[in-house]
Write a structure and sequence with these properties.
The complex is a heterodimer of chains A (594) and B (459). By secondary structure, chain A is of the alpha+beta class. Chain A is 36% helix and 15% strand. Chain A contains 20 helices and 21 strands. Chain A starts with 5 loop residues before the first strand and ends with a helix. Chain B is of the alpha/beta class and 459 residues long. Classes of the chains: A alpha+beta (594), B alpha/beta (459). Chains A and B meet through helix 17 and helix 20 of A and helix 6, helix 15 and helix 16 of B.
């Protein structure tokens, strides 16, 4: 018998953005949870860049928040509060224990302690056998000088997981005092932007400015002359890098006709002089870096505090996972975050919360939660990873979501908060806030439909000022809001609501009204597709015996065992013709049963 | 789905011809040849090389010759069905061909159901949905023109054209999506004017195809033409007269006597399906009421309406009201009994019905030629490039094209109105989905339903 140091329900390996959400979700759902990290000083560390959000990534943060997650709240307050149960120096977790029935029973740390548990979430980020590369200089290390996890790759391989090697990178950090911002374009913060969390009304925050500048012909010349010293082009880097977040040498080569590229100077924090140089990540040698950064407008005297580097690491081929993020083959073993081949904090957090939820559901003996593609970006993300896999670090983009007009930032709570409440992750307080908001939206929509604005001199003068056509007869506020040039703010002036409308409600009302036609179109598309999503595929089906399927499709389907026709249709290697064959096969089965 | 079995059928039309072909498809194809064939010495071969023509005799169980034949074997997937296939070309004549088929069945094949070879070809990925549909149309074509159009389509030209549009729209969609995602990085900008021009070109193409869609559908499915009118105006006599003159095929629907009688007439390749209906009047009993309301429902359902008036009687007030409401593009008014002294006032008729009117006589046959030529012209008269150039021949395709066209028009409107790129992308996606439904690139439940209906799978 194994002697356990202590027993947990869930053990999380890694305390980055995936690990923190996973651990918190499991703990909040009532599971006894432990999170292990290589360094307690690096919890939810933002090693790659200092910002959260952006197109589609921001959506994920909102979704994590709507489900009762942490990321949004933490960003809004910029304060990290994760309680660790144990830490160990060096490569933290060395071995996963697996018994003969293919279930996880515990973990053993490199330092020898053993902990029993029923579920393990591996959220080890980019630390697996990671190598940091700066030009010709290469060292085994995690990001920001942290330890790499040397042993975990071997453990996973022995358990039968296929690993691939990916690469990512980060630009240099430059001393703010050496930057001449007078030559750059100031990018002040936008005061009108709401908070990430649905629980916060307004962000009270010191706004700092970013600065926009550009590379020069000189920059491109330096890069071209030294391409042979770039490990990317010299062949030193084996891992595949993200096409959508390219290094500057990649950009210069691939967009050869562009004579300049945008560079943003972003502060690393309020209490440091380090500036993050967005758009200039590179793995060129240090001497080239100095010359290259100094050729950028306004950086002529730049002092590098930390050099740019590329990092190469092992990740798990995510097609070995179910859309619950649990391994197909080993019960109780979950994976979340960059170890699944994704890139970005937000993508990691989204997977983290889902893996935490499903690990907890498993412990509770309940059905897993699967987020659909028309329900959440997290659903799109996990569905893509588990069914299609990825050949490069997967970055979320709005174009990956076919129902993006349904998956809006403003309605993440409508999509997910009830679910979060049902599974015990959303607090009563959050749920009540949500219900109150829903009620307010409904009331305001009713008021807009029922309130008719009569033409008057005042009204028409106002409309003329904002270049909208004058009223000849009465018009409902609802129809008025449908005019592209009219915003909710205009309605506030023309016909104020009796009670003050909160910004979040106003935003909802405006979006729902303005895009009504298009939203309805996408709802229709989603409904049509839902039929396929809801057609289950029998668990025991042997695809090898279905002769109409092409060979590749038979192999892929037998390996991936999709739950529904919809899932099957997204597996790479399964064609529309194969899906037609499957549909006919299912129909024949039904006909026989009758 | 069990396709471990081997199917066989005579694949040449029944009757007297130069040769008759028996085909078999499935794992036993090769065995069948070694079993039923013998060479000129009476010896059976154990090995048939694919794609090689063999001469020999089909022999019965006692090795007595049945027919002298040419035969060949094709190894899957390089065959029409994608499976192993055997083909035996014998002498024409129903009796001989059936004997050959019998031998093939004795060797382990079973008789194929209608369309089953094509079904297998589709399921094995040898043809796309649109091509499979064309095969089915060809098999069920009732006129030579319909058959010719179906077989021309089967070559896949139409599929290819649709797929080109589909690919074109997907390309543009990718551009728009890129502009949404990478706008901040300043690497991608969308040329809205160029995009708008391209979309307008595609819309023009689709509209061009759709212009002949109605004609195409009528050509493939036949034109349902309802004969309507008061009792005793001569509807049935007219139908009978048409049948006598045009060698129509008459079928009587089962049920009550008030059900529809149908006659099919082939006019230069256009199948006109004449439907006789119950006389329209204030109904007496329940059964008659049902007949009348069914007859009236044809005003909506029929492709064309022949509304019959009695020229030897005054226009009744009910008739007046009725013809007032008829769709004039689809309706031809017939003044029957034109052989008698006319009573009806043609001006009064024109006053309430501005469409076409032809005097006819069921008794003498006068005017019937004109009626048929009006029907033909109303269906195919406007087709620009001649009926063999018609592109859209199925209601389903017309519907998909209409959907795609609408989505693209919405995209153009959004582009012109300077709307967000996300919305334009939604429209382009909708257009691509619609086009994909024609070729099977977008798989949907209704597509499978259709395959079922057409292939009789599972029955």
């Amino acid at each position: 018998m194994t002697h356990w140091q202590e027993d947990f329900d869930i053990v999380v390996i890694g305390a980055g953005h995936a690990g923190c959400e996973a651990g918190l979700a499991a703990a909040r759902m009532g599971c006894r949870t432990a999170v292990f990290t290589i360094s307690l000083d690096a919890v939810a560390l933002m090693a790659c860049n200092p910002s959260i959000g952006g197109t589609s990534k921001g959506h994920i943060v909102r979704e994590v928040d709507a489900l009762g997650g942490q990321m949004g709240l933490t960003i809004d307050t910029t304060c990290i509060q994760v309680r660790m149960l144990n830490t160990a120096k060096g490569p933290a977790v060395h071995s996963l224990r697996e018994t003969r029935n293919g279930r996880v029973t515990g973990v053993r740390l490199a330092s020898g302690e053993r902990f029993g548990c029923r579920g393990v979430i591996v959220a080890a980020g980019v630390y697996l056998k990671s190598r940091v590369i700066v030009g010709e200089w290469i060292t085994d290390s995690g990001p920001s000088g942290l330890h790499e996890a040397a042993g975990l790759s071997g453990v996973l391989t022995r358990l039968g997981f296929r690993l691939t090697r990916f690469k990512t990178g980060t630009p240099a950090r430059i001393d703010g005092r050496s930057i001449d911002t007078s030559l750059m374009e100031e990018q002040p913060g936008d005061p009108g932007v709401g908070p990430f969390s649905f629980m916060n009304q307004r962000v009270v925050k010191n706004q700092v400015s970013c600065y926009l500048t550009y590379t020069t012909a000189k920059t491109h010349e330096i890069i071209r002359e030294n391409l042979h010293r770039s490990p990317l082009y010299a062949g030193t880097i084996e891992g595949t890098g993200p096409r959508y977040c390219p290094s500057i040498e990649d950009k210069v080569v691939r967009f050869a006709d562009k004579d300049k590229h945008q560079v943003f100077i972003e502060p690393e924090g309020l209490h440091t002089r380090e500036k993050y140089i967005q758009g200039l990540s590179t793995s060129l040698p240090i001497d080239v870096q100095w010359r290259m950064y100094r050729s950028v407008i306004g950086l002529q005297d730049a002092v590098i505090m930390r050099p740019a580097y590329a990092i190469e690491y092992d990740c798990v081929d995510p097609t070995q996972l179910q859309t619950t993020l649990q391994s197909r083959d080993i019960g109780g073993l979950f994976f979340a975050g960059q170890i699944n081949g994704s890139s970005g904090y937000e993508e990691a957090a989204g997977q983290g919360i889902l893996s935490g939820i499903n690990a907890a559901r498993m412990v509770q003996g309940k059905e897993p939660v699967i987020l659909s593609r028309d329900q959440a970006y997290i659903g799109v993300l996990v569905d893509d990873l588990a069914l299609k896999g990825t050949r490069e670090p997967y970055r979320m983009m709005t174009s990956r979501a076919e129902y993006r007009l349904l998956l809006r930032q403003d309605n993440a709570d409508q999509r997910l908060t009830e679910l979060g409440y049902e599974i015990g992750l959303v607090t009563r307080e959050r749920y009540d806030t949500y219900m109150r908001k829903m009620e307010a939206i409904e009331q305001e929509m009713d008021r807009l439909r029922e309130t008719v604005l009569a033409p008057s001199e005042d009204v028409n003068a106002y409309l003329q000022r904002i270049e909208s056509s004058a009223l000849k007869s009465g018009i409902s506020l609802y129809d008025l809001l449908k005019r592209p040039e009219i915003g909710y703010g205009d309605l506030r002036r023309l016909s104020p609501s009796p009670a003050e409308t909160p910004d979040a409600v106003a935003e909802q009302v405006e979006v729902q009204t303005r895009y009504e036609g298009y939203i309805r179109k996408q709802e229709q598309q989603a409904r049509r597709a839902a039929k396929m999503e809801k057609t289950p595929l029998p668990k025991e089906l042997d695809y090898a015996g279905i002769s109409g399927l092409r060979l590749e499709a038979r192999q892929k389907l037998n390996e991936m065992r999709p739950l529904s026709l919809g899932q099957a249709s997204r597996i790479s290697g399964v064609s529309p013709a194969d899906i037609a064959v499957l549909m006919i096969y299912l129909k024949k089965g039904e006909a026989k049963d009758e | 789905m069990n396709r471990d079995d081997t199917i066989a059928a005579i694949s040449t039309p029944p009757g007297v011809g130069g040769i008759a072909i028996v085909r078999a498809s499935g794992p036993l194809a090769h065995n069948i040849l070694s079993e039923v064939l013998a060479d000129s010495q009476g010896n059976k071969r154990t090995q048939y090389r694919p794609r090689q023509v063999y001469h020999g005799w089909v022999v019965d169980r006692e090795r007595e010759p049945v027919d002298e034949v040419l035969a060949f074997y094709l190894a899957g997937p390089n065959s029409y069905t994608g499976e192993d296939m055997a083909e035996i070309q014998g002498h024409g004549g129903t009796a001989v061909a059936e004997q050959v088929l019998n031998r093939v069945l004795q060797a382990g094949a079973r008789l194929a159901e209608p369309g089953e070879f094509s079904e297998r070809a589709f399921l094995n990925g040898r043809m796309d949905l649109s091509q499979a549909e064309d095969v089915m149309s060809l098999i069920s074509a009732r006129t030579a023109s319909a058959a010719r159009i179906a077989s021309r389509h089967m070559g896949g030209r139409w599929s290819r054209q649709v797929r080109e549009l589909y690919d074109g729209i997907l390309d543009r969609l990718t551009q728009v999506e890129a502009a949404v995602d990478f706008a901040e990085e300043g690497l991608v900008t969308l040329d809205r004017a160029a995009l708008m021009k391209e979309m307008q070109e595609i819309i023009r193409k689709i509209d061009g195809w759709l212009a002949d869609a109605d004609a195409g559908r009528l050509l493939m499915e036949g034109m349902r033409t309802a004969i309507l009118g008061r009792p005793n105006v001569g509807k049935s006599s007219l139908l009978n007269r048409f049948c006598e003159e045009e060698r129509a095929i008459v079928t009587e629907s089962p049920g009550t006597t008030r059900d529809v009688l149908e006659a099919e007439i082939n006019i230069k390749g256009l199948l006109i399906r004449l439907l006789d209906t119950a006389g329209i009047r204030e109904a007496g009993d329940e059964a008659e009421r049902i007949g009348v309301s069914r007859a009236l429902s044809w005003i909506e359902r029929a492709d064309r309406i022949l509304y019959v008036l009695d020229a030897a009687a005054p226009l009744g007030p009910d008739e007046r009201d009725q013809i007032k409401g008829l769709p004039k593009e689809r309706t031809l008014l017939l003044l029957n009994k034109s052989d008698l002294e006319p009573v009806i006032d043609p001006d009064a008729v024109h006053g309430v019905f501005p469409g076409a009117v032809i005097p006819v006589s069921a008794k003498t046959g006068a005017g019937l030629e004109q009626v048929l030529s009006w029907l033909y012209e109303s269906a195919l008269g406007d087709v620009g490039g001649g009926i063999h150039e018609i592109t859209v021949i199925r209601a389903r395709h017309a519907q998909a094209l209409t959907g795609a066209g609408q989505a693209l028009k919405s995209a153009v409107k959004a582009l012109a109105g300077n709307m967000e790129e996300e919305l334009i992308a939604t429209d382009l996606r909708e257009a691509a989905l619609a086009l994909g439904r024609i070729t099977g690139q977008s798989v949907t439940e209704d597509m499978v339903e259709r395959i079922f209906a057409r292939f009789c799978v599972g029955k």
